[in-house]
Amino acid sequence: MRKRGLAVLMAAVLGTTLAACGNTPDSKTTKAPENTVKTTEERTTEDGNDKTSEAGGQEGELSLRFSWWGGDARHEATLKAIEVYEKANPGIKIEPEYSSFSGYYEKLVTQLASGNAPDIFQVDQGWVAELYARGDAFADFSDYKDSIDLAQIPESMMTDYCTIDGQVMVLPFGYNGTVFLYNKTLLADWCDAEGNLEVKTWDDFLEIGKALHEKDPESYMTTAVTDGYLRYILKPMLEQITGKIDVQDDFTLGFGPEELAKAYDSFMKIFTEQVSQPYEEAVLYDSMQNNPLWLNGKIGGIFLFFSNIDTEIAGLDYDYGVTAMPMFQDAKVSGQECCPSLMVAINKNIDGAHKKAAAEFLDWFINSEEASLILGTVRGVPGSASALEALEKNGMLSDLMSQGIKISNDTLSLKNGAYELNASVKAVFVEYMEKVIYGVSSPEDAAQGMTEDLESVLAELGKK
Amino acid sequence: MYKKDKYLGYCFIAPWLLGFLVLTLYPFVVSFVYSFTDYDMFKMQFAGLQNYIDIFTKDKIFMGSLGKTLLYTAVSVPLKLLVALLVAMMLNKLKRGRAVYYTIFYLPSILGSSVALAVLWKYVFKKDGLLNLLLGAVGISGANWLGDPNLVLYVMMLLPLWQMGAPMVLFLAALKNVPVDLTEAARIDGARPFQVFKSITLPMISPIIFFNAIMQTIEIIQIFTPAYLITKGGPVKQTYLYSLYLYDTAFRDLRIGYASALSWILFAVIITFTLVFFALSKKWVYYGDEK
Q: Is the peptide bond before B235 cis (omega within 30 degrees of 0)?
């Protein structure tokens, strides 16, 4: 009897301790009140019938966990949209789980592996193929055609990025393309009377950059963060040389060491000829908004996704223009990334009622005018035709962004390979790019080493 | 009565015990099993010793990362102990306000997981950070501390110094226990302060130096936060410390089996260092019971 009493006491102590370790309501990743939370695991044990009353805290309430990453603007807009949806659909409770990008992928993979992933989750285009191959994580949207209008997504985007093995695994929140956003005030000497900048080739780009730096040694033609140097300059140069996707979907490379060495030679000119801010200085800033040269109007322009134009020039008092990516004289394709910016999936391992409710919510979230007007471009320029139309009709796309969309759409580009932005693949690209920039490796040695390492990473990925 | 106390004891340690079993012992055992598998969080396949063989024969990053980590540890640990000892000696001399200084020096050690310190470090050592601003004010053009591959690791080595609270407290306790009669007798015999320190203080506190050296080596060899938060291992992998490599292998590349093998190799390295420390300790640690 005494033992039992102690056991009860111990259990109480443990319960209290563990509860104390749990998330506080103030923690960054918000969770709904405990009485409304039911884990995915618990739901999957149900028989798949609509037992919605059990899933929510209140009678008849169905709750859906929705996770995404982003900055404050995206969080605020999404929370507001959720509030509006919940008001219009009293039986549905959306539990937001949001954070910054850092650590999101690691957390999502762990959740998927442990069967505790959210019902709806935002994913990056570069993760889709791997998560599909490894985890079989995505529900097929085409099973919920009655709940969500898939026709609003352009067909090419559906085929290239959303469909795997005939199943619609993900949908795009937004789409993006690379453009060059330039500071007309700083580059006035090189712009025509209308303020248009003529940079058709990389030679034009280098020439203007050199002249600019000579005129004002504090100024540079461009700058970027590590990811930007890779995705907006080095990789496009490589694709312009080969005319192929760098990392093909059959786990082979679209380039050889000679072509890569050639790309490195051209890429390095932006540093050796002082066209770019020195790499070791530029990459210490997490974003353009922290880079004093950009803020002080000392940077000619930056390569970026057109969706980010308004964010990057927010609060700056200069005159800006947009133009297409420079290309090599004989290049056939631009190498710009023209792809969905952020994607969304429904967890495969939840019951039918939750999947259907998730599809209905996403239909409203992605396609409706009401949601589009709340969300604006916080997830990029909408991938859905109806949402894009709503933004255009209400004048919610800036002139620069509209120009960016047009320029990007008019530029010939290849689709992003399924594994091109895979985290392990990207890590190899970054490692060797830095070796060349810092002079640790010659372009030729780096090209050889990188090709070998990429082949070994791709072989590993291909095994799955 | 004794029995009752025993159960009550278990009751008190129950939260810790559960935490130890679930969060330490279980991962410890399981990671050993995983290290012999090819496991990506979704599928698992037995791989025998392949992970270990690959680490020593094919892995291009392993040796560099381990080397950087050992260098980091070899410089940071003595430096941290030296600063902790100096601060403890100063505090020991204080007649008034000891508690205030004690708190001030200990404070950085309780800032959670050193995340705040790492972020602060970044803002101090950036090209346009606080340090270069101060240097600029006196006409010195500061280096690019975090962007220069030749400097960055050394800058990061200074970070653990902020968190010398724990060894400092132990040193302070040890210094208080140095018998005053010995030091006074030495002084009367004409010993200079440095001689007193070298021949009396140091031997008397040597068990604590030994303990601190082992604990700090174990802690610093596993250091993760500064490399992850300040430099992400760059530039050119100069700060790609072992724990960060292990983390990337597990959670970015999803090679849990391989990462587990890496973690067991680190464990073996730590055990080896500890055994070597113990073996060497016989030569310089004074416990007072030597003949």
A: yes
